[in-house]
Design a protein that fits this description.
By secondary structure, this protein is α+β, with helices and mostly antiparallel strands. It is built from four helices and six strands, in the order βααββββαβα. Strand 3 and strand 4 form a beta hairpin.
Length: 142
């Protein structure tokens, strides 16, 4: 099972405050553990929402809103993509993570990623084949 691990933003991360050298080192060691365990597939930090945009779909149109966005608690500062055997395993790995926002009450959200078999009959063999071809093209670009 794949899981998206979402690191919630803080006032500091939204202000563009960079992590300390100590936190970079701690996260580096943690990421190394994840890689050695075969858990980590990807992971990145995100720029503040002030450098982002949102696109709202309204009927047949689109409305673009430039950042920054209010409600820091709803924003994401970074993410990992992990391969775990279960939600419980993902939780145990998150519990080992250094506090991503030292000095604050940080929050990390864990969400399971849909796999092809989760979609049922509506995801036909033809649609699955097309999806597999797109994934192969993406892998070839990397």
């Amino acid at each position: 099972m794949r899981f998206m691990i979402l690191i919630k933003a803080s006032q500091d991360s939204e202000a563009g405050v960079m992590p300390s050298e100590q936190l970079f080192a701690e996260m580096g060691r943690y990421n190394e553990e994840l890689v050695k365990a075969g858990i980590m597939l990807a992971g990145e930090g995100l720029h503040p929402s002030s450098k982002g945009a949102r696109v709202r779909f309204t009927g047949g149109g689109h409305v673009v809103t430039d950042g920054p966005f209010a409600e820091t608690k709803e924003l994401i500062a970074g993410f990992w993509l992990w391969q775990c055997q279960s939600m419980e395993e993902a939780i145990e790995w998150v519990k080992r993570c250094p506090n991503p926002m030292p000095g604050t009450e940080a929050e990390i959200e864990i969400r399971q990623v849909f796999e092809a078999e989760d979609f049922g009959a509506e995801f036909t063999p033809e649609l699955r084949a097309a999806e597999d071809e797109l994934r192969a093209q993406i892998a070839a670009q990397g």
